[in-house]
Write a structure and sequence with these properties.
The protein is mostly beta strands. Helix content is 8%, strand content 49%. A hairpin with a 3-residue loop joins strand 5 and strand 6.
């Protein structure tokens, strides 16, 4: 028996030696599970005029979106490689998909070169988000509670572009740049329904800075909520909140932003951001003047121990006086985050956020429907904002990664 086993082993070894060597490839299965509870005061349904009441809810993905995915890379030789990424979002409290299709978070394939960069095609994040995120408030305060009210400037992950081609450069002595174009696919109107973005990032030691632009055009200007007829159109995203509710018939949206960060020590750092957001009217829009939001944000983060971290941030959002509004909406938001790492895979978190809304904005009907601004914290409460100018929320949860 031993002799037979040896002959088999020798045969296998000989066969392996005679087989040509193929390029190395890997496929990785990964996932994140985030589940918890949240409390919010004065909650109501978006667009409702009823008085809100406090509510405690089961939550999923407040710290980081729950997901399951696959990504792979194949070495093609000479510094070339092929890549793919398939990523699905889901909610813990009912097990359903959270972003439309089965791979609603991301789905793309591409080719890369170590010296010339990478080109990918499919459903993807924008360069505006990817290159600005490392210095944005939500990296430390999360998007569910820590995004600027309603995620008006798109620093959170709500913006994914379908039919997108993306080029990303290699790291050039700390400098990285990227560009995206999402095809609208409207016959006879190349620009309708399209989206485009560009961004540049520079990182050197403890300092980093990034700037970017993102624009999306509706396929049918004024033809309903922008999520239904643009290349940015999965699961009703980008989100509608009390901050932008009156401008959802915009012919186009545009965001220009800068984020920056500096690590003062190995445990303490500061970050700041500025963004300019425009909702541009068309002939069929329910408002007539371009609405502009200017958003300023800052935060400090501190790793008290290798396991325990604290972050605190403040941001201010100011809407322009337009469309019959003489006292444009203003939003003050304060967010605090605490996290404790139990292991490399498991983390406990607690989040607290408070928003104060002042001034006026447009209701769902657009021009002529001026209403008092109401508060919403981050983007996790877009569908359940406050019925007043104040909202306070608390969230706690557990994250496990694999």
């Amino acid at each position: 028996m031993k002799k037979t086993t040896s002959r088999v082993a020798l045969s296998v070894a000989a066969l392996a030696a005679a087989t040509p060597a193929f390029a190395q490839s890997t496929v990785t299965l990964f996932g994140i599970v985030d589940s918890g509870l949240s409390y919010g005061n004065s909650q109501t349904t978006l667009g409702s005029n009823s008085n809100g009441h406090s509510a405690v809810r089961a939550t999923s993905g407040v710290w980081i979106g729950s997901r399951l995915g696959f990504h792979g890379i194949e070495d093609l030789g000479a510094g070339n490689h092929a890549i793919f990424w398939l990523e699905s979002g889901f909610t813990m409290y009912n097990g359903g998909l959270s972003l439309g299709g089965i791979f609603g978070r991301q789905a793309y394939v591409g080719l890369g070169n170590d010296h010339y960069g990478t080109v990918t095609a499919g459903r993807q994040y924008t360069p505006y988000y990817l290159l600005l995120f490392p210095y944005a408030q939500i990296k430390y305060l999360t998007g569910g509670v820590g995004a600027h009210p309603g995620d008006i400037d798109g620093f959170d992950t709500t913006y994914r572009v379908n039919n997108a081609l993306v080029y990303t450069s290699p790291n050039l002595n700390g400098l990285t740049f990227s560009a995206l174009y999402g095809f609208g696919g409207v016959a006879g109107a190349f620009n309708r329904g399209s989206a485009w973005s560009g961004a540049v990032q520079y990182a050197h030691g403890p300092f980093g800075i990034a700037a970017g632009i993102f624009r999306m055009n509706n396929a049918t200007p004024g033809g309903g909520a922008w999520g239904t007829d643009s290349t940015v159109n999965s699961a009703g995203l980008p989100g509608i909140s009390t901050v932008n509710n009156g401008y959802q018939t915009a012919a186009a949206q545009q965001r220009i932003a800068v984020t920056t960060g500096y690590d003062i020590t190995s445990t303490v750092g500061v970050n700041a951001s500025y963004s300019n957001v425009q909702y541009i009217s068309g002939i069929a829009s329910s408002f007539h003047d371009t609405e502009i939001f200017n958003v300023f944000g800052g935060l400090v983060h501190w790793a008290a121990t290798p396991a325990l971290t604290f972050s605190a941030g403040y941001n201010y959002t100011k809407a322009s006086d337009a469309n019959g509004i003489t006292d444009g909406a203003r939003y003050h938001e304060v967010t605090v985050a605490e996290s404790y790492t139990l292991s490399k895979r498991t983390l406990l978190y607690a989040l607290q956020g408070y928003t104060r809304a002042l001034g006026q904005t447009l209701g769902t009907a657009g021009s002529g429907h001026v209403v008092n601004a109401t508060a919403t914290v981050g983007d996790g409460f877009n569908a359940t904002p406050s019925s007043t100018g104040k909202q306070f929320v608390v969230a706690v949860g557990l994250v496990n990664k694999f």
